[in-house]
Amino acid sequence: MAHPNGKEFVTTRLGTGPRLHYAEQGDKEGEAIVFLHAYADSWFSYGRVLPLLSPAYHALAPDQRGHGDSDKPECCYAADDFAADVDAFMEAIGIEAAIIVGDSSGGLIAQRVALEYPHRVSRLVLIGSPTTLVINETVMEAGEDMLALEDPISPEFVRQFAESTIHHPVPEEFLERVVSESLKVPARVWRDYYEGVLTVDDTARLGEIGAPTLILWGEQDIVLPRKEQEGRAAVIPDATLRVYPDTGHLVHWERPEWVVRDLEAFIKDTSRA
Which CATH superfamily is domain 7-272 in? Predict the structure, then answer.
């Protein structure tokens, strides 16, 4: 079924340099929601969420630098570069503030935006997202593989990488598209993003996050421990943690209906605004 408001694909040049490709849908006068994908993903990481979202919202899902159909510059894949791109993206399309949603490592970028560009973030939503991966053994072990990647990257490797974190099954055609999107990312970007984003540690600053924050986490997440999520919810001044049963790391892939339900309820909860 086509989305009532349709989804368009647009590119815009950022003040930070790269041209970003993004998916856009909904009411352009409505409240803006910017969806930030994770490591080696694209806008399509939210491909199961966007069709369920009310067309009253102005939804924007960019391919971040180095990813999808956006520019893939030779340099600059640190967390600060990605955060500056979000600020520049909102500037380029004329949005003052938005609900910023980040999944997995995209949450590390969303968190950095909330810290460095607080005026841009009306609310923050972190989906299956680490506080930091610096002490995460699962990720650090995988790092050796990531840093050794060379082009062309094998589709089998990418598929295995995606499947390793899924607990509740996702449709096969969705997974195939995720893999093909991921294969657009050059090996050098896999390596640079790993070193520039997955090594970020903003945990000491979580208390500075002023935006109301919703944290969604799957109980069967093999990457992120519950105590990390509970600790973050306790430190961010206005945070709510929702735990999804029988759900793995990629909450928005596995449970898009629940994510949209909780996201829309969180936005409408004016007592928190």
Answer: Alpha/Beta hydrolase fold, catalytic domain (3.40.50.1820)
